[in-house]
């Protein structure tokens, strides 16, 4: 009973398209039409064709480095491709002269506290949740060793 | 009538007059949680601490000094709020076993009022999802799946298949909280709302779901998803209760710089009788593709209801509504990429055994700790934030966000007080059908009617309205002006009174009440 199966795709280049105004549905003779539109007032855009170039392995590798999260399998890469395709719909919106919005509270002066130490001394409490620790230190494996290159890493991308 | 079915105000009166004690109330709720375990609404049940809190509350009532209306009232909290001494997992392997060292501000405020914290509720992993099906502890089942109303309308393929394969989802991501309130195991629950995560499950579970204005309630201690859109959400069985909980939570918190500094005064909702001065807006874009004819009809009926009562009901336009999901998709994944960076295994949470280097340890920890949905969003977010994409995706989405927010400003400036829209496209879907499509697709479909309010930071509330043909709840949404929760809730309360949404008829609860009755000494609950 998925309601979405009822939608019809309009082949109009992918833009959400306004449906021509429908006639009001009368519930009884003489009754005034309800203000609720009887038909959907827009259609979902047709899925865009995949971008000219697929995301390159270099970019995928770069992302894995940045995010320190791996794609794991072809599905993961496909998921990214679809996400990009979906986000491309933003191109259809005219944003000339529009400033980016960081926060809905941009017109207000938000609270900033004084730079004074008012709490702390809870080392033991905080160390409780760490797995590897020595005295009052968190223990990390050696740093300054870059993640192995693509060829040497165990990643799905190697085979792609 | 059973005590649990009563809304909080009546229970408060009962507690004050000694008809029932906080300990009894707590025990009954805990017992009901056990008998409704199949719903999987709770991840952690804090039985010992809850009983202790109930005892403390009982002492105060005996002295005649309750802390307030919420003293002794059992509540549940979504598992992405930090709770001191109680495991906080966000339904993820990454935080399994993590015991918070502090209480989120909203949790602390409830405890300071004497509320009894029963436990932490289930959700989609890290609140990413619209079904409460993608957490590591399994999916949450909608209590209405087991209601007489739903069973009467469903055609079982075979008697044994019936319940097991037919159960419907709660919606998400605060599905556990919604199910907990809907099944009477608590009187109020906290959820979170970033794209509709409180209102969506509220609609599917037939409860009131309030998303407050961004900046009204502190996010300190709420594990963040999208810092510029997250808000704590309130789930209750009636609008009055939501107002009371809001009253105890709202207000500036010096620990959350994004809470406004204006003075907030808790309010009681007036019993509105005259709506003739109200102007209700019907945004035409909210008849989105895929809206079920049932919900459309209900929405129309609601508009008629206001009109016949004398209110001005007009069609308005929010032209950028159709882009809100795309915009959310980019902004959400970008902020997620940043927020999830803190999970590296060093200070808390899961840590991999990989020890060759810091980076490889981080990578392995995150591979082991996060599920596909979370990893997918992190990777997408990082893509949109790459230097070559920053302007075209992230900045572009921020510009579109302004357009969406401005749409609302224009409409409210034109004299409209409240917007009336559907909350979901259809009633709750059976789990087996829901999982056929992936999380991202589902989210883009299910959040379409709720997401824009998060973009613009506006308050919005789901009010359960009627049952669908399948016997499942349908809710309608009211969206109000920034920081005008009193007006929003007043109108919602009026509407709630008009529609008289039916009570869920759950076999488990009935059986349970019968047993409780037998042990009751004084049985007058009028």
TrEMBL record, chain B:
GO terms for cellular component: glutamyl-tRNA(Gln) amidotransferase complex; mitochondrion. Keywords: ATP-binding, Ligase, Mitochondrion, Nucleotide-binding, Protein biosynthesis. The keyword Nucleus does not apply. SUPFAM superfamilies: Amidase signature (AS) enzymes. GO terms for biological process: glutaminyl-tRNAGln biosynthesis via transamidation; mitochondrial translation. NCBIfam families: gatA (TIGR00132). HAMAP family: GatA (MF_00120). This is Amidase domain-containing protein. It comes from Balearica regulorum gibbericeps (East African grey crowned-crane).
């Amino acid at each position: 009973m998925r309601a979405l199966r009822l939608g019809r795709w309009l082949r109009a280049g992918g833009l959400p398209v306004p449906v021509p105004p429908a006639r009001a549905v009368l519930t009884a003779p003489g009754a005034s039409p309800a203000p609720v539109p009887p038909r959907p007032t827009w259609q979902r855009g047709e899925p865009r064709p995949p971008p000219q170039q697929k995301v390159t392995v270099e970019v995928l590798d770069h992302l894995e480095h940045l995010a320190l999260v791996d794609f794991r399998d072809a599905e993961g890469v496909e998921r990214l491709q679809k996400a990009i395709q979906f986000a491309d719909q933003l191109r259809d919106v005219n944003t000339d002269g529009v400033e980016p919005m960081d926060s809905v509270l941009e017109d207000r002066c938000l609270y900033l506290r004084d730079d004074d130490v008012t709490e702390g001394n809870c080392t033991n409490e905080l160390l409780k949740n760490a797995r590897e620790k020595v005295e009052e230190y968190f223990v990390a494996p050696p740093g300054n060793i870059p993640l192995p290159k693509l060829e040497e890493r165990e990643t799905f991308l190697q085979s792609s | 009538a059973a005590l649990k079915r009563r809304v909080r105000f009546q229970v408060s009166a009962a507690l004050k007059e000694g008809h029932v004690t906080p300990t009894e109330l707590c025990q009954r709720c805990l017992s009901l949680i056990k008998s409704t375990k199949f719903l999987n609404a709770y991840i952690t049940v804090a039985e010992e601490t809850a009983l202790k809190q109930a005892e403390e509350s009982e002492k105060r009532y005996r002295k005649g000094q309750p802390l307030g209306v919420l003293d002794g009232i059992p509540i549940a909290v979504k598992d992405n709020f930090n709770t001191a001494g109680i495991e906080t997992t966000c339904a993820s392997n990454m935080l399994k076993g993590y015991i918070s060292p502090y209480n989120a501000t909203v949790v602390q405020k409830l405890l300071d009022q004497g509320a009894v914290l029963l436990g932490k509720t289930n959700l989609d992993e890290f609140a990413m999802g619209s079904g409460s099906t993608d957490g590591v502890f399994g999916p949450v089942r909608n209590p209405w799946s087991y209601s007489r109303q739903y069973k009467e309308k469903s055609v079982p393929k075979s008697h044994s298949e019936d319940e097991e394969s037919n159960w419907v989802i709660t919606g998400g991501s605060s599905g556990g909280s919604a199910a907990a309130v809907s099944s009477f195991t608590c009187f109020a629950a906290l959820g979170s709302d970033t794209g509709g995560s409180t209102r969506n499950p509220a609609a599917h579970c037939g409860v009131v779901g309030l998303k407050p204005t961004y900046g009204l309630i502190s996010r300190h201690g709420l594990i963040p998803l999208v810092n510029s859109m997250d808000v704590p959400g309130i789930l209750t069985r009636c609008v009055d209760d939501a107002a009371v909980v809001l009253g105890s939570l709202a207000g500036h918190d010096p620990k959350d710089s994004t809470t406004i500094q204006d003075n907030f005064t808790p309010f009681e909702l007036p019993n509105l009788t005259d709506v003739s001065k109200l102007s209700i807006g019907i945004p035409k874009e909210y008849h989105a593709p895929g809206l079920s004819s049932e919900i459309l009809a209900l929405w129309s009926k609601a508009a008629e209801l206001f009109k016949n009562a004398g209110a001005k009901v007009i069609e308005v336009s929010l032209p950028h509504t159709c882009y809100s999901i795309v915009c959310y998709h980019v902004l959400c994944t970008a902020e997620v990429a940043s927020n999830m960076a803190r999970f590296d295994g060093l200070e808390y949470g899961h840590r991999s055994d990989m020890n060759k280097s810091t980076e490889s340890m981080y990578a392995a920890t995150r591979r082991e700790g996060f599920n596909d949905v979370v990893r997918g969003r992190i990777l997408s977010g990082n893509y949109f934030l790459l230097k070559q994409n920053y302007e075209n995706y992230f900045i572009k989405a921020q510009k579109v966000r302004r357009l969406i927010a401005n749409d609302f400003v224009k409409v409210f400036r034109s004299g409209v007080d409240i917007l009336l829209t559907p909350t979901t496209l259809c009633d709750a879907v059976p789990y087996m059908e829901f999982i056929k499509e992936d999380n991202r697709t589902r989210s883009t479909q299910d959040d379409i009617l709720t997401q824009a309010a998060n973009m613009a930071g506006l308050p919005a509330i789901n009010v359960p309205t009627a049952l669908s043909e399948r016997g499942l709840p349908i809710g309608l949404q009211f969206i109000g002006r920034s920081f005008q929760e009193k007006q929003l809730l007043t109108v919602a309360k009026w509407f709630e009174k008009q529609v008289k949404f039916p009570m869920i008829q759950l076999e488990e609860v009935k059986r349970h009440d019968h047993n409780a009755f037998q042990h009751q000494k004084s049985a007058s609950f009028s």
